[in-house]
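debug: dumping io for the single-chain case to check the tokenizer round-trip. Nothing else runs in this session.
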Amino acid sequence: MRRDRAGPRAPSRRGAGTANASGVRLRAASAGDAESIAALSGELGYPAGPGTVRARLRRILAREDQLVIIAEHGRGRVCGWLQAHCNEALESGLRVEIVGLIVAKGMRRRGVGRCLVERAEAWAREVAAETVVVRSNARRLESHAFYPSLGYQATKTQVVYRKRAQT
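debug: decoded output
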């Protein structure tokens, strides 16, 4: 969020923009996108039903520290999505983290991912974030070429531990 004398201001929720050279248009996500998001998530091995995604999406879209944008081509066919959130850590300051980015298999290498990331970077500037961070699974080899091509630098290797909050 922007920091100024008046206190933090909510970030812009705009996702809309003009179509890029490949005819892709960005827009803000809505709960009606749950089915398309679920289908694309399944392509990358993150299966979730449309109802589950719709419930998650409604909670996420209600928050001002979240950005969820949809990429469309043709007659409004969803071909990708991106989720980013804004957070502040004591050790690293205010940052935007891209927490999800999926482009449909048939639309990869056409500038869709680049367009989505550029919108997240613009949002980071709007909220006065110091950095944009993205994590990529070690198995996603395409990502390890994609992000450096956009100017991102690998800064560390981590092991992620997970424990269910409710047992």
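debug: round-trip ok. The chain has a mean pLDDT of 87.
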